[in-house]
Amino acid sequence: MGRINIYFAVNYILKPISRGNLYPVFDEILKRIRTEENDSGIIVKSSEGIQRILISNLVFAEVIRRNVLYHHRSGKVVRSAESFCVDIRNYYQTEPVFLEGLPVAREYGHGIGTKSIALIVEKHGGVYRFSLVNGMFVFQATI
C-alpha cells in the first residue's frame, strides 16, 4: 500500500520535449495511479513481503494445505500462508448510514448482508471494518 510499481508504457515522447507534450503524459500516469489506489484489493503477506493484489488483476485464488495461491493476470502466482486480508472499495451515490459500526439498508430487502459478513468474519476469529474514505465505501477484513 505504500510503494506503487508502474509497469506500463505511456506515450513515447520525441525530443525536443516541451510542456505541451510532457504534461499530458504525466496526467495519464497520475490518472492510472489514482485508479489503482482506489481499486479493491487483497492484502497478502508472502515471502516477498506485504503485497496488495488488485481484484481487477486477479484471475483466481486456490487453497492448498492452508496456503492461498493468488493467480495474477500476468501469470504471476503469490503464495500466502498467513491471514486472509481483504480491502474492497466502491464509490457510493448516497452516503451510507451506519448503526453500531455496520452499514444499514434504507429499504427492506436491500443491502449486501453486512451483518452476515461480520458474523462470518467473527466466527473465524477475524476482525473487520466498514468505513467511508474519500467518497468511497470501504470494507476491510482479516481472518
Describe what you observe in this structure.
- This protein is an alpha+beta fold and 143 residues long.
- It has 3 domains: 1-38, no CATH class; 40-82, no CATH class; 85-143, no CATH class.
- It is built from 2 helices and 10 strands; from the N terminus they run αββββββββαββ.
- The strands form 4 sheets. It has a 3-stranded antiparallel sheet with strand order 3-4-5, with no helix packed on it. Strands 6-10-9 form a 3-stranded antiparallel sheet, covered by helices on one side.
- A hairpin with a 2-residue loop joins strand 3 and strand 4.
- The longest helix has 20 residues, at 19-38.
- The chain is flat.
- The two termini are 19 Å apart.
Kindly summarize this structure in a few lines.
With 143 residues, the protein is an alpha+beta fold.
Shape: flat
Distance between the termini: 19 Å
Order of helices and strands: HEEEEEEEEHEE
Record the strand order, biggest sheet: 3-4-5
Number of domains: 3
Query: Beta fraction of the residues?
Result: 35-45%
> Could you list the spans in which at least 5 consecutive residues all have pLDDT below 50?
1-7
- Percent range of helical residues: 10-25%
Largest sheet: 3 strands, antiparallel
The helix count comes to 2
Mean pLDDT, as a whole number?
77
Task: Compute the CA-based radius of gyration.
Answer: 19 Å
Tell me the total number of β-strands: 10
Structural class: alpha+beta
